[in-house]
Design brief:
Chain A is an alpha/beta fold and 339 residues long. The first copy, chain A, is built from 13 helices and twelve strands. The structure holds a DNA duplex (16 and 16 nucleotides).
Chain lengths: 339, 339
DNA sequence: ATGAAAGCGCTAACAT
DNA sequence: ATGTTAGCGCTTTCAT
């Protein structure tokens, strides 16, 4: 069943059928009605490949992201997939998704697939995909020659690449600043592996100390293992090892949960003797008791902004190469209040 | 830059270039090397539309799912997206994703888009999409005329539709049975809205009572509002209203968290005076103290099985129309142990 | 308002 | 091992 079959049944030319399908004005109401009737009756569905060949676009974007089922993946970034996709659909674009787990080898292959599909743009979600070594980012730079690249919480300074960042440095500055201003002296910085985003958080933490003329030692920066039990044990070992801290700044709520469990296990009172600040404002932050104070990255705004800027970019509008969206520190029960 | 440009530069026919691209054997090493060199040098990328037109497949599946960023969406089903996509890629299929939120009006439109794209199959993730009224499922049945439909935790008895179900009834039977066998007398059944999957859980709960000759009254079935604060309040009101219960079976971990908060707020000892069983074995189940006992739906196995059966179906193999994968009850700290 | 004809970039059947 | 030719199903000039 193709456009010729329909045109024959309707007694019109394929061109006219095409006009009806694409909602062109130059079709009489009568003809339109007849063609639509045939289409409905036969259950005909236009072939998107052929449409794509003609239009040279299939109105499709590619999304490259970390597998949401991977335990190490940041939950707010999984939500990003939904946000981006929803916004794209509002503009009549579909999305092909590539979840690649933490296996970087697939990155280039995925990007190549997207280019074969002539996607109108590529979204890369998460700073994880942007590597330190210039050369490992080459496939991204190459792809930018052919299609605009939208980086969600990642940054790369290059033509046709647009970055949309959570203000991780600013949020960390504010969050750690709050800890210091409410009496905390020694902040333990817990992270889950140093991506670009984590580095910015560490910068913010350092800045919070520096601007208060306080010392922040690298001895207080630790990578915490995955898993609640492992993480809790790890923190306990730090304490047993002699590290003194009265606050934990975790770059991920799941790590904050570990800190909380460590405190409860050791009968350390929260927030009197230990303050905990999480990150991502995930479901986890509200299911503990006490509930976790946490940084909300405002991922939804980041995604909405990215899509709307992409649309204007596709209309040949000018778009800034780097946009930073403010995050927000949500105070709950694991931090003290200023007086 | 197309296949003709390449063929010209390489001094061979387009067919030969096509052979090189598709890895055909019938090409001399010399020619292959030359063509590959030109391809690399020019940065040529084959056009997938045109390939699709020729092959009449673009090796793409469609995934229809609930927006993972929607708070009501089940977290294990969001993971399903990653699992399905990963398995498909292993078989060299890509996936177009359609996250539609709880706005059912879009369902038909998404399915239609997938058909235009001539997807090789459609995955529908979640019983939410399968409605009670036959007529509302019509677009799914129609789509099944054109492409196989894979239902993840949903069931529809129809040609070319294959169902892959978590054993929600069985798991609930076992989970509630455990509550009853460890001394609980009155089980409060909390759900978040009655989808097909929730109904099966309720069936299991009823069966657990019936098989033990115990009475289970509908007064103990309640829909709990979204949100930790609201849910906790809701349960408290039930208790204040005079409902007596010594166990909660929640169809979602987030609801179990509410039950836990209710208990802690009212100084009810867990599990001595109240047992709580959650569902989905989500991150939430391990970040509370005490940690939640919960049902693991084994979504990964469900997805892996669905994809592998789809692949064999596409090879014209016979595939059962309905496959049920066992779930597992994970005992943690909110339930008692049998002695 | 409608139609005829020429592509879009690739693959496949059939030569050679 | 390589080339020729004819589509795949649609859109888009350009006529009428």
């Amino acid at each position: 069943m193709n456009i010729y079959d329909i045109s024959q049944k309707a007694g019109v030319s394929p061109t006219t059928v095409s006009r009806v399908i694409n909602g062109s004005d130059n079709v009489s109401e009568k003809t339109r009605a007849k063609v639509n009737a045939i289409i409905a009756e036969t259950g005909y569905t236009p072939n998107a490949f052929a449409q794509g060949l003609g239009h040279d676009t299939m109105r499709t974007m590619g999304i490259l992201c970390v597998d949401p089922s991977d335990s190490r993946s940041c939950p707010s970034l999984s939500n990003a997939i939904g946000y981006i996709q929803r916004e794209l659909r509002a503009h009549d674009y579909d999305a092909v998704i590539y979840c690649v787990g933490y296996n970087m080898a697939e990155k280039a292959r995925c990007i190549d697939d997207m280019l074969r599909r002539r996607v109108d743009s590529i979204f890369i979600v998460g700073s994880f995909f942007i590597e330190d070594k210039e050369k490992n980012n080459q496939c991204i730079l190459d792809a930018a020659e052919k299609t605009p690249i939208m980086l969600i919480n990642g940054y790369l300074n290059h033509k046709n690449i647009y970055s949309f960042l959570c203000d991780d440095a600013g949020a960390s500055l504010q969050a750690v600043g709050h800890l210091l201003d409410t009496g905390c002296k020694k902040v333990l910085f817990l992270h889950g592996g140093m991506s670009g985003s984590e580095k910015r958080k560490l910068d913010g933490c350092r800045e919070a100390h520096a601007s208060r003329k306080l010392v922040f030692s690298d001895d207080y920066v630790h990578e915490c293992p995955q898993g609640v039990a492992e993480g809790t044990k790890f923190i306990e070992n730090l304490a047993v090892g002699g590290l003194k801290f009265d606050a934990v700044f975790a770059t991920e709520d799941s790590l904050a949960v570990c800190a909380l469990k460590y405190a409860q296990k050791n009968k350390i009172h929260i927030p009197k003797d230990l303050c905990i600040m999480g990150y991502n404002n995930s479901v986890q932050s509200i299911c503990t008791s006490p509930e976790l104070s946490s940084v909300d990255q405002n991922i939804e705004s980041v995604c909405v902004t990215a899509v709307s800027m992409l649309i204007s970019r596709l209309k040949k509008g000018g778009v800034p190469t780097r946009t930073i969206i403010a995050s927000e520190v949500i105070m709950r029960e694991t931090t003290r209040t200023k007086h």
